Amino acid sequence: MAEKAKIAVLVSGGGTNLQALIDAERSGIIDSGEIVLVISNNEGAYALERAEKAGIEAHAVTKRAHGGQAGFEAAVRELLDSKGIDLIVLAGFLSILSEDFVKHYDHRIINIHPALIPSFCGPGYYGLKPHIAALERGVKVTGATVHYVNEIADGGEIISQKAVYIQDGDTPETLQRRVMEEAEWIILPQAVADICRGIVGA
Ligand code: GRF
After folding, report:
1. Does 147 participate in catalysis according to the annotation?
2. Nearest-CA neighbor of 77 among 114, 107, 102, 113?
3. Four-CA torsion 130, 173, 95, 195, nearest 10 degrees
4. Quick one: which H or E segment has residue 59?
5. pLDDT of 62-103, one tens digit each?
């Protein structure tokens, strides 16, 4: 095994979780892994600029340019395999991957979800939706979950979770921000660091 595990990060939007991973690699929290590839399914994603600023190879791979889901996944697999990727991190990646794709990379794909699974998760719970649902249900605690990705949306083995308290006056936007700051940006880099140490046998 190489000295460091090779990490690919798949993104769709702003890329604050990608930034947290880049910062964690720089600060040494991720000491056994290296982000070598960023792929966005959205060519306008600001996450692509974050990758470029950090000197990481970045590609936009769209379904439109590849004639749909099968061509898109084939192009993504080609990139991942050409780089010898050990760990695939879905960090705000909004495209659903096929059963065939996730089975091919069994226990090598992880995702961050902005709620405490099994609450507010599964099909349709992306973006602000988990936070809207948490506030509507009146829960007092929410949070974030890092989990392995399998063929069931948000259904894979849970790796880590962190709780975040709801505050009076929270809106979906304020809650989303606090869940990111207090949970996502902490537990995702930590999970990546731990998994990479396991991969390289450190
Ligand atoms: C995060 O809340 C993440 O948990 C969810 O989508 C959002 C992505 O944000 N899956 P960013 O692109 O990392 O800023």
Report:
1. no
2. 102
3. -80
4. strand 58-60
5. 999 999 999 999 999 999 999 999 999 999 999 999 999 999
End-to-end CA distance of the chain: 11
The DSSP string of 20-45 is HHHHHHHHTSS-SEEEEEEEESSTT-
String of DSSP letters for 143-169: EEEEEE--SSTT-SPEEEEEEEE--TT
Q: Which residue among 10, 11, 12, 17 is best mutated to probe the pocket of ligand 1, counting the most ligand atoms within 8 A of its Cβ? A: 17
Which CATH code for domain 5-201? 3.40.50.170
Q: Using the atom order of ligand 1, give the atom closest to the CA of residue 114.
A: 4
The answer to whether the CB of 130 is under 6 A from ligand 1 is: no
Cα torsion 170, 155, 112, 141: sign: positive
Q: Whole-angstrom Cα distance, residue 146 to residue 102?
A: 16
Between the alpha carbon of residue 202 and those of residues 24, 33, 85, 176, the distances in Å are 17, 11, 18, 34
Strands 5-11 and 33-40: parallel
Q: Convert 169-180 into a string of H (helix), E (strand) and C (coil).
A: CCCHHHHHHHHH
- 1 pLDDT band (50/70/90 cuts)? low
pLDDT, tens digit (0-9, with 9 covering 90-100), for 154-164: 999 999 999 99
